[in-house]
Design a protein that fits this description.
The chain has about 150 residues and is an all-alpha fold. It is built from 4 helices and no strands. The chain has one domain. InterPro entries: DUF2269_transmembrane. This is DUF2269 family protein.
Amino acid sequence: MLSIYTLLLYIHIISAIVSIGPLFVMLVIVKRMRTASQQEMSPYITVFQGAITLVKHAGHILVTSGILLMWYAGYAWYTSWVVLTVLVMLASIVFLARAFKPTLKTFGTAEYHQPTFVSLLQQKTWTYIILLLIMLWLMVAKPILWS
């Protein structure tokens, strides 16, 4: 029989995969944007925005299932790996809110310059991947840095 904890754990793992997987697809899209014509850019941007939306919503499920897992397993909120995960998560939320939208809004404006635009998207995508990988490590390794 499947326990509630096991079900929550599977939901948490799947949402982690869905929240980080599209970022690697975004890197492929960014690579294609480097040499894309102006007409090809619009569909790439649409797919990029869709991937960001998917990552964001999967993150909501990830956070919710993570909180439920912590509560169910009885982890304390002051445990080092929990505190660090929350801090990195807050940083990633702020980063995600500010990273892509301002850059994507420049498309089709006088501020738009394709090489700069693509470089910014690539840099911001890698930064977000690194933040999520740090959180993933904290959740899996559960390092005890203080008592």
